[in-house]
Amino acid sequence: MTGDKTNIISPAGFAALRAEYDALLGDERPKLVEVISWAAGNGDRSENGDYIYGRKRLREIDRRLGFLARRMKAARVVDPAQQPDKSRIWFGATVELADDDDARRTVTLVGDDEAEAGSGRIGWNSPLARALRGAAVGDLRTVQLPAGPKLWEVIAIRYP
Description:
- The chain is an alpha/beta fold.
- It folds into two domains: 7-77, Helix Hairpins (Orthogonal Bundle); 80-158, Chitinase A, domain 3 (Roll).
- Helix content is 38%, strand content 24%.
- The chain contains three helices and seven strands.
- The strands form two sheets. It has a five-stranded mixed β-sheet. A two-stranded parallel sheet has the order 1-2.
- Helix 1 packs antiparallel against helix 2.
- The radius of gyration is 22 Å and the shape is elongated.
- Residues 86-159 form the Transcription elongation factor GreA/GreB C-terminal domain.
- Keywords: DNA-binding, Elongation factor, Protein biosynthesis, Transcription, Transcription regulation.
């Protein structure tokens, strides 16, 4: 995130974070602790693959749980359907864009944790999303890309 400590997220995105957290904490971690304590009881730990792998995986899970807890604590759930000004681009908007060559692209502005560029879901703090914020149909916006600036025209805006 770029300086913005608030993690804007949709209700579905927050539910996905919560589900992952609950699955790790309530299911995967307790099973792993059981395997580790069983493996520890088998004697020499230096060559015990179950013990060594289990401890490594437990550290990974604990790191992920900490990350998810911080993201959920900083989360501000925003329902895109409740946006007051649907004539402009804000969080949750699905936007149809056209470039100089009239190549069309459709993107949806979602929380950074929900972003999936391959399916057109771009993070709220991505360069394209930052450039589009507040734009209306017909507006031109320039996005700074690694290959140089690219101009996009807003063709349509939809909200769920």
